[in-house]
Amino acid sequence: MKVGLFIPCYVDQFYPGAAIACLQLLEKLGVDVVYPKNQTCCGQPMANSGFEHLTGGCNDLFIKNFSGFDYVVGPSGSCVLHLKEHLHNHDNPEIATTLSNKLYEFTSFLTDVLKVKSLPARFPHKVGVHQSCHGQRGLHLSQMTELVAPEFSKPGSLLNMVKDIELVHLNRKDECCGFGGTFCVAEEAVSSKMGKDRVEDHLHNGAEYITGVDMSCLMHMEGILHRQGSKVKVLHIAEILNGE
Amino acid sequence: MSEIQNTTNHADLAEVFNNDEARVDWHDETLWWIRSKRDVAVNKINNWEELRETASQIKHNVLSNLSNYLQQFESNALSNGIIVHWAADAKEHNQIVLSILRKHSIGQMVKSKSMLTEECHLNDFLEENGINVIDSDLGERIVQLAKEMPSHIVLPCIHKKKEEIGELFHQHLGTPAGNADPQFLTETARQHLRDTFLTRRAALTGVNFAIAETGEFVVCTNEGNADMGAHLADVHIASMGIEKIIPERKHLGVFLRLLTRSATGQPITTYSSHFKRPNKGKEMHIIIVDNGRSIQLGREAFRNSLKCIRCGACMNTCPVYRRSGGHSYHNAISGPIGSILAPNLDMEKYADLPFASTLCGSCTNVCPVKIDIHQQLYKWRQVIVKNGYVPAAKTASMKIMDWTLSSPTAYHTAGKAGRMVLKYAPFMVNNKLNPWYKHRDMPEPPKESFGEWYKKNRK
Lengths: 244, 459
Hints:
Largest sheet of chain B: 6 strands, parallel
Mean pLDDT of chain A: 96
Oligomer: heterodimer
CATH architecture of the largest domain in chain A: 3-Layer(aba) Sandwich
Low-confidence stretches of chain A: none
Number of strands of chain A: 8
Low-confidence stretches of chain B: 1-6
CATH topology of one domain in chain B: Rossmann fold
Number of domains of chain A: 2
Structural class of chain B: alpha/beta
Largest sheet of chain A: 4 strands, parallel
């Protein structure tokens, strides 16, 4: 099985640790992983701003970089969702559909394809799990509180394999953090307030770390924690699952 | 593409709302409490998701055969003795109401809650024509006294604290200053409205459901104010949007179960009143209003928005609505549903609304008729940009982004430059020109990107 590692642009630039953890954990699990070096961005920032018509270049590049793999795995529910919903190729629609069917968000690749049952990880801390909306409501990585349906959580099931971890209860377990891509600057006031409220829920319930499947939400919450002088840290879920 | 100067936009109004953080917290908690009540109520129904799907399909049928159902409804209503009017737009609707009142020489009217009349700005129009209108829904009466628009379609004065309502009542209804006891204030409103009900000869109500099969319509209220107004008046006018049709009476069994559970967490509205024919010697009118709905029906991507039954669940769950308040949407219908309906009416004026969302998708999940609200917000963004209703600066920056991200070389250079700037000249980014920095710090730049690390550490 040959897997292409898709690292979202802002993870590549700002959070290499999250990307390294993904790569190392996939390697530990016996997967043949390759990182195509000419990748850039999924195009979501433009598309969510209403400029989907400008994402052709990003689409072509993504298809060029990743079409040759059995699976493509990326540590971001949001970028993966964007590609699954909007990746297209005008001349060859088939190639885009085939690729988007092979595309997985990191935790769901572990649970659904590799069917991981145990992990050698240990993380003796209190951890709050942020449910990133696009992973949760878009990719159905875990059940949504709005629906009358049985509970499940793919990231949660993986975290439960980690030794000595304590997952904290949140008062609002799947409220949006307010990042929202360009929303975070276009609607700065509401975005920051949403972030403050989300962070407060984790702090109030004693989290030492906030984790999740999307570094973008975590970057937003980290910015708020930092400004508040908090010692609470954010970590991508791969960094916990890859821990000693 | 011209520079759009939008003086009323959601982001600015929301920023003003957020100047009082304690109030934002209060507003958020109040609406979250209602969302939580909704969760409790819907979890008592085992087949809730099936019920939503059924309602969605019934509405799908309605929208696919709308003209037939409307004609069937009209013909049955006529044979029931109801007078039926058709209004192409808000102006025609308002003129029809005025002409009915003029015909009977009526100068005062009582009105129960109707978001359609808010959409048509009926009150202002009637006041300009010398007709006195009193809103009989308590929340609507409060915003009417305050000379404001409703901030929520189900809870019109949810933005007001009880102390503020006490002050309004003190000014307008003569209650003692400083009295903010909800029971006392409600009783005052009852007494004040009782006189209105007894003296008004015309009553206007909304319509929740119009049944094609029988020509009757159903009005849902918790206060009984629609019934009180309609039964005491000589003339009952009911205003409905063309999308309010349901095919058969039995379908009420689906919609009435969904409506109030979604809205407030109640099993059913206190009053679900059926109106079928006028009492002897009285008149009953129905005004069937289009006002842009048939245009929306023709927009395939946005057609489903006409399934809306106006429960307000999408507002209660929306994390942006809860923290920006209904008035920040500067439209009669606020929140996520307002944001997908309003651009149809005026794309330029409401170009900001589809962007007032993180696209978190919670609205879509609570919607009792399964409107894909957040997907439509995304689609409206594309339409609005293509029609040129975005600032030129944004278009320019998006083109630069496209150029950078389409070329690996440009991307790697820009990424490196960005990290260098953050590392060695953080003041270039961390300043008040960067909205991110106002309440958040930028991430610490790492010494190398993942791409650079990979080159060194793997083959």
